Automatic annotation (TrEMBL):
Protein name: Protoheme IX farnesyltransferase
Enzyme class: transferase
Further details from the record: Carbon 2 of the heme B porphyrin ring is defined according to the Fischer nomenclature.
Gene: ctaB
Pfam families named among the record's database cross-references: UbiA
InterPro entries per the UniProt record, alphabetical: Protohaem_IX_farnesylTrfase (IPR006369), UbiA_prenyltransferase (IPR000537), UbiA_prenylTrfase_CS (IPR030470), UbiA_sf (IPR044878)
Record CDD domains: PT_UbiA_Cox10
Source organism: Aquibaculum arenosum
Keyword list, A-Z: Cell membrane, Heme biosynthesis, Membrane, Transferase, Transmembrane, Transmembrane helix
Membrane topology per record: Multi-pass membrane protein
Amino acid sequence: MSDTTLDRATETQEQLRDFVALLKPRVMSLVVFSGLAGLLVAPGSLHPFLAAVAVLCIAVAAGGAGAINMWYDRDIDAVMSRTRARPIVQGRVAPEEALAFGVVLSLFSVMVMGLALNWVAAGLLALANLFYVFVYTVWLKRRTPQNIVIGGAAGAFPPMIGWAAVTGSVSIESLLLFALIFFWTPPHFWALALYRSGDYARAGVPMLPVVAGEGATKRQILLYSLVLLPLAPAPALLGTAGIVYGATALVLGLLFLAGALAVLRAPSGADTDRAAKRLFAFSILYLFLLFALLIVDRGEGLIGGLGLA
Ligand code: HEM
Ligand SMILES: CC(C)=CCC/C(C)=C/CC/C(C)=C/COP(=O)(O)OP(=O)(O)O
């Protein structure tokens, strides 16, 4: 192979990597997993191919919204150390190209969901996508410290979308899964914001630790952890999951609460940063485990949900 062919291959690979980065793939992993859980625990069955299409649509719509978010936020992303290396900021992807990429993916995923599954799931998918772009990114992120409480609802839709892909409807059970992520998001994000508050202050983004201070943020984290404690086991009461899920969710909730208390008690500075980093990491593990348990504890739902029964 000649040097120019090799150069071109490397360039294509790097471009591909940049476009994948626009989709925020790491955050997407949990979005997709929670969507899959919603799909698997829903009553009814779906052909495995259609189940795969539905999950792929959730991933692509979330990725499309992520690309549009990166286009809109390119000014503040350039100021924050965590986001400085992103492709648009580094000039490796043109802003208009990222925007077009995000819009096309968003439209495509909603259309495919509607045509292949049903229009309730497609409508919810569009709502989640629009909520992240317009309500969170454009409207609230730069205006109020409640940005992630309200705007964070976008990320709570995936299990409801998975559920609707199977059933064509919204139900009390899928609303409960929505509520679970909705109340999980503030402690998840504010833990990170505590040790990244310098970044947000520099960028002029009014995240809670910047606007209300460290103490108020820690108390809010504790409050939401208290709400999660009875909420997470609740699917066991509705029959969406079994007793194994319910008991483990309670234990996980107690561990979450212990993490929030450790953050509250930690003195300002390095100790707070350390406790907040641990809580942030645990928040991700917590949600992954909850949804994994939900799937496992509904073994017969899993088999039925994929039409394998
Ligand atoms: C408005 C709501 C949310 C905000 C503001 C937020 C913010 C963030 C931020 C800033 C990070 C760090 C990413 C990085 O290091 O580049 C992060 C990580 C993460 N978030 Fe969230 N998040 C939100 C909701 C969610 C939701 C709903 C999910 C999934 C259900 C989620 C899943 C994750 C995961 C899996 C990571 C770890 C990614 C990694 O390994 O870096 N987040 N989040
Ligand atoms: C269609 C669909 C299912 C959408 C779900 C969208 C989704 C993943 C929402 C979660 C919200 C999120 C990742 C916020 C990141 O905040 P930020 O954008 O302020 O983070 P940043 O500072 O890293 O850019």
